């Protein structure tokens, strides 16, 4: 049975390359014509599986205007789309939604001297897109990128992070968390606990306060929820269009 795909909504792209970071983490580079998007937004990737077009949201890792397009994903056990995505090879077709969506973007974030970008797992992707833009560095004096993973090899994109650090050595900090093994470089445990007991501020050498700090938080919904609770106890508020605050969030599931 053939699948009817709306070519106005979906762009037929080609796989440029697939980079495998660990046994379950991949980034896929794609050549496709898409509408302009903002750093931090997501689109959808889709593949015909059986007689259905299976589509899921993925954040852009590339900056607006940068090619090829790049998406970072984890192979979810039993997940219908990720198993198929990870088996793609250069030249294979896949569908990309032309129009991006999402509000994890800098134009939603009020002014402040310090921007904290907190992520778990694959949710570091949208923050890399943001960090590659000039706007991030025009608007904030200091930017702290935090990435929480289970095991150290899951700290992907070291090359991208090194290149940001070498461009902004005094203004950029990268703070890794590794929760399920001991390392001599990462903070142990989880992000909300280290916010609560002050370890994250001590590592960054920066104090968190409503007057100084803006937070963007993305990834595991339990991490997002626990982080918001800890930050609210410190006097920070969720950022809403009608009531600007300090915390802008996106859940991945
Ligand atoms: C706004 C938005 C942006 C997203 N961006 C990305 C992205 O850039 N990269 C990415 O890998 N995923 C991203 N996701 C999740 C993605 O859309 C899929 O759910 C995921 O790739 C699994 O697809 P699946 O069909 O294999 O399994 P699904 O049936 O969609 O997922 C099954 C289960 O896997 C778990 N899961 C899903 N995604 C993740 C994840 N990223 N990390 C850990 N556990 C997960 C959840 O428990 C989920 O219920 C995003 C989701 C949303 C809502
Ligand atoms: N087999 C299972 O039981 C099981 C369970 C969950 C997910 N998975 C699958 O395993 C794959 C890998 O997922 P992943 O490791 O990339 O993502 P993840 O499960 O979201 O873990 C990433 C990081 O987020 C942390 N985290 C989880 N809950 C948190 C919370 N409430 N507050 C703060 N931090 C929190 C984890 O810490 P911790 O190590 O302390 O959890 C880990 O450091 C996915 O495909 C997922 O579906 C499997």
Q: How does the SSE layout of this entry go?
A:
Layout: E1 10-20, E2 25-31, E3 42-49, E4 52-59, E5 69-74, H1 80-86, E6 93-97, E7 114-120, H2 124-131, H3 134-139, E8 142-149, H4 158-167, E9 172-178, E10 187-188, H5 191-196, H6 199-204, E11 213-219, H7 221-233, E12 247-251
Parallel strand pairs: 7-8, 7-11, 8-9, 9-10, 11-12
Antiparallel strand pairs: 1-2, 1-6, 2-5, 3-4, 3-6
The structure holds flavin-adenine dinucleotide and NADP nicotinamide-adenine-dinucleotide phosphate (NAP).
> Can you tell me the CATH superfamily of the largest domain?
Nucleotide-binding domain of ferredoxin-NADP reductase (FNR) module
The CATH topology label of the largest domain is Rossmann fold
Q: How many H/I helices?
A: 7
- Give the number of domains: 2
Strand order of the largest sheet: 4-3-6-1-2-5
Residue share in helices?
10-25%
Provide the structure class.
alpha/beta
Mean pLDDT over the full residue set: 97
Q: Enumerate the distinct ligands.
A: flavin-adenine dinucleotide, NADP nicotinamide-adenine-dinucleotide phosphate
Seen as an oligomer or otherwise, the chain set is single chain
Sheet with most strands:
6 strands, antiparallel
């Amino acid at each position: 049975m053939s699948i009817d795909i709306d070519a106005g909504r979906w762009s037929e792209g080609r796989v440029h390359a697939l980079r495998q970071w660990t046994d379950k983490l991949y980034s896929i580079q794609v050549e496709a014509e898409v509408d302009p998007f903002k750093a931090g937004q997501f689109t959808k990737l889709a593949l015909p599986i059986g007689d259905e077009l299976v589509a899921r949201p993925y954040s852009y890792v590339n900056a607006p205007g940068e090619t090829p397009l790049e998406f970072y994903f984890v192979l979810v056990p039993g997940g219908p789309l990720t198993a198929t995505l990870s088996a793609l090879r250069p030249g294979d077709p896949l569908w990309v939604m032309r129009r991006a969506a999402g509000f994890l973007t800098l134009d939603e974030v009020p002014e402040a001297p310090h921007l904290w970008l907190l992520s778990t797992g694959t949710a570091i992707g949208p923050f890399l897109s943001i960090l590659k833009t000039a706007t991030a560095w025009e608007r904030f004096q200091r930017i702290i990128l935090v990435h929480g993973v289970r095991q150290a090899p899951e700290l992907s994109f070291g090359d991208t992070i090194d290149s940001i650090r070498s461009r902004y050595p005094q203004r950029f900090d990268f703070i890794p968390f590794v929760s399920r093994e001991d390392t001599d470089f990462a903070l142990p445990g989880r992000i909300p606990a280290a916010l609560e007991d002050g370890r994250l501020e001590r590592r960054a050498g920066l104090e968190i306060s409503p007057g100084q700090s803006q937070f963007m938080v993305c990834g595991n919904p339990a991490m997002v929820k626990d982080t918001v609770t800890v930050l609210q106890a410190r006097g920070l508020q969720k950022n809403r269009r009608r009531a600007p605050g300090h915390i802008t969030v996106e859940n991945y599931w």
